[in-house]
Design goal:
The protein is mainly alpha-helical and 89 residues long. The chain has two helices and no strands. It is extended.
């Protein structure tokens, strides 16, 4: 070992030692798969409907504006307010 050089301790899988309440990833439930199937399966038909019912150039512009707002809006929020429907936050 070199003098004066700090080394990191060996890597240990901390997940097995973490209490259950410390895990931040939500459980994948049946509701997750229902929502995923609906959103995945409805995205393309919704896009086709919008493009066919509105002129494509206008539809693309509207989608760009909506996506831009959806991306910028979370950064404009000054503080986070936890939802009461999500316990443990």
């Amino acid at each position: 070992m070199l003098r004066g050089v700090k080394t990191s301790p060996p890597l240990v899988c901390l997940r097995s030692f973490a209490p259950v309440s410390a895990v931040k990833v939500p459980q994948v439930t049946a509701m997750f798969w229902i929502v995923k199937a609906l959103t995945t399966g409805m995205g393309e038909p919704a896009s086709d409907f919008v493009v066919r019912s509105i002129e494509p150039a206008v539809a693309v512009r509207v989608v760009v504006v909506v996506v831009t707002i959806a991306v910028v809006l979370p950064f404009a929020v000054t503080r986070s307010v936890p939802s009461e429907t999500r316990p443990g936050i």
